[in-house]
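Encode chain A's predicted structure.
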Amino acid sequence: MKSPLVATDPNSVQNPYPYQLIGSLSEEEYQALKRDIAKRGVLVPVEMDEDGVTLDGHHRIQAWNELRHEGIKIPDYPRIVRVGMSEAEKRTHARALNILRRQLTSERKRELIAQQLLETPEISDRQIAKSLGVSPTTVGTTRRSLDYDQLSKMDTSLGADGKIYPRRSTSVFAKNAGEAQRAIAAIASADVLPQKFLDVKRVERIAREQRSSPETIPITMTVNDGVDIRCGDFTHVLADIENESVSLILTDPPYSIDHMHLWGKLSDFCDEKLKPGGMLLAYSGQFYLPDVMAALGKHLEYVWTISVVGRGPKTLVHARRIYSKWKPILVYCKPPFKRDAWIDDLFQGEGPEKSEHSWQQALSEALHFVETFSASGDIVVDPFLGSGTNAVACVRLGRAFIGCDIEQIAVQKSIDRIEIEIAEMR
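Encoded structure for chain A:
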């Protein structure tokens, strides 16, 4: 069947597709798109705003829905959530994508350019040409063909200095509908987002941190005599741990550039709380590894790097064009380093476990490292608790555990997991 999408007045409240500005594909074009999606899935992400309204990809969504209804098994389509764009910017973006991607006639291109001119007549031909991916000459020709009265009645958008400034926006990539819903929820709860391309995990982390203040009243929840779970910033809620009493700090801090300051704080914390010879094992990303190591080296002695090789899909590091299949665990100690047993620096992981938390590490890894780097009765600490995987490992292996997280939901999940673990061991 032919696509029923129709371009209507984008300002009409009755318009169900406010950013479908160019009209329907032809029957031939639509069926070709549908056959391609049936064969290869949706390759170009659907774009939406922070309210979940589709900016680009209406035909892809329709074809995908029809194929699923016909019983054809295809994976969910990827999404990009665009945040902070004005209505005019959303329409400009939708036009630019259509001009770049579709094989349009000169007449159809001029139709889109005319729409843009009517919305932003004060912007120069060169600026509009750049935003839409066409030539300034084409924009100028289209401008001259429009009625002057139409252009002069349009509102302008000028800065305080009389100049036009494009508003930068945030974009979030989501692999499927679930991630898109998580992204929209996190965006709604965040006060400020960096104006760049983000993934869902990073948006969620930023939103959690903005909801939590360093002045948060410490919440200590004792699960049993050997496990303490706390809610808040580790520099505050773990400050009462006795100095030089901890044998192992095993943790997984956030890796992004926005969180580099945490590594210096972690180094200070380890210097204060670890016993002489006590160990820090910290998961890290590779992108900012030199900065991480410099921060940890402020107080601690570098020992080694353990490679955890995953069995799940490779991580695509777009900025470096790298397929990453392993993750480093940095091993540091509070001097002096003293160890009799040998350490294997390669660990074969069992793949991702994300049932409780989006940044969750595998329990098998936690069991291995807790057993290797601590002894029964030792105190193990995790300042970035997440879903409590390290706490569960300590319960199984008979270690005392103290951990915290800034997100109360994560803290409650950890307590629930630990209580289940204790009950099953009885």
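Confidence is low (pLDDT under 50) at residues 1-15, 148-168, 213-218, 353-360.
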